[in-house]
Amino acid sequence: MALIRFIVQLTASSTVLMDMDWEKYQQLWIFLGSLTMAAHYTMVLLNLVIALQRLLYTAYPSTASSLMNKSVAKTIIFIIGMLFIGIVIIYNTEIVGILWIDSMMSWKIVPGRSRILVRVLKKVSNYAIVVANSLIYVVLFLILIKRKILSLKRNREIRMTIQVVCMVVCEMLFCLYWELCNLNGLGVWDFVLTETSCLLFYDVLILPYLILNGQIRGELKSLVKSTSNGYHRRTSNFLL
């Protein structure tokens, strides 16, 4: 979802260089906006699903192992995929929608469509992160501490705890910023801060794991190394 959001933002930004007629391609700007919102809401939903899964495995490990089979996982992925498509469709109707404004390099609600519904959906997603997600992880840590599973005496436990805490705290800070600060201003810095905060939100979900998780870092290094070796082999064969 973060990759989809990044690609959509990059595509929308690149249209400025193409000097495309903004009035002529209204439907394209609205479609890109629908993908942006669908990626955001789906990302929030995925975070909640992952948090609930972790809580279930922590509270009821044997029950969770028997329930969470491949069929259940595929069903969950299918439902989330359908919700993504549903959000895209809804944001392309006359009820609600946002569109890309190339002169401002930002997104705005489509004139004549429901501003209230857009704001309600944003508030629901923000509170889902701040309240539900945070509460789930607090309960999870309390269960671990009560069962003396989490002692914070081993480096691996400390790293994993820091990863989760960093992710949750950063999510809360972003959502509180979106809720408490005025993001509807029309100044240059208003647009810059709004777009930057939205893009950074996806980064903070990944960066703690990339920085603190040695296994993921090792896998990424192996991937980069194998890709680099493959490129050098192809280059050598071409030169020969």
Automatic annotation (TrEMBL):
Coiled coil: none
InterPro entries in alphabetical order: 7TM_GPCR_serpentine_rcpt_Srt
Membrane-spanning ranges: 28-56, 76-101, 127-145, 157-179, 191-212
Keywords recorded for this protein, A-Z: Membrane, Transmembrane, Transmembrane helix
Superkingdom as given in the UniProt entry: Eukaryota
Protein name: Serpentine receptor class gamma
Organism: Haemonchus contortus (Barber pole worm)
